Amino acid sequence: MAENRMTIRKITPAIYYVEYKERFSMARALMRLSEYYDSPHFKGKIFGSEELIKWYISNSKKGKETGKFTYYDDWEGFNFPSEILEPFYHGKFDPLNTEEKELLESFREKIEAGEKFYIIATALDIFTKEVFQHELAHAFFYMNSSYKSQALDILGELSNSNLKILRDYVNSIHGIGYAEERITDEIHAYLITYDDVKAEGLDYPEFRKVHEKLISLLNRFYETEGNGEFSPYFNSTI
Ligand SMILES: [Zn+2]
Description:
Blueprint: H1 2-5, E1 6-12, E2 15-20, H2 23-38, H3 49-59, H4 61-66, H5 71-74, E3 77-81, H6 86-89, H7 98-112, E4 118-123, H8 129-143, H9 145-155, H10 160-172, H11 183-193, H12 195-199, H13 205-225
Parallel strand pairs: 2-4
Antiparallel strand pairs: 1-2, 3-4
Helix pairs in contact: 2-7, 8-9, 8-11, 9-13, 10-11, 11-13
The structure holds zinc ion.
Zinc ion (ZN) is lined by residues 134, 138, 186, 189.
């Protein structure tokens, strides 16, 4: 069971990549952690799964259209820093489901040893290089101040009106967007992926230029800090 559901790899000294077999168990394990970190509604709050499900159906785009909980299909990757795990270890989110317990158990020793790290995750049944790159970009943005300041310099090249377009885009994703504190990081990560931005018809020369600079920044950092043993980033399949 547990060992079949996911594989954890340390891909840089401060980043763990959790690869789930399928998106359903990934979302079961990570949705409350993720919403606690970056939801416009749940950030920093204690809440039950039922509450999240109800809120998501009433507020997300597909939820409103279908009346169903489409979270498992909507979100292809997850990311958050290790501090987010703390209230979950301290019993604030009881009861925990099986997948949440399994994730917490897997990282318990590292947390108890005082290790600070970042977790990113995707699932094999939806894996794309772009999702991996998007989540990896979040990890570097949070963990590496040099990466972050260079990424912010690159974003600084965007005109105010283009920045506003991106902010509106990020805020409209799946009809719910992100907590305010997470917007700049998400703009950077969506420009790394870029496919999603393009698919919305937002393919402007300035975005393309910034996308190329950001992806080469991410390349450089991952080539330097990545351990080279696991690199879906550089291969189209794993
Ligand atoms: Zn993101």
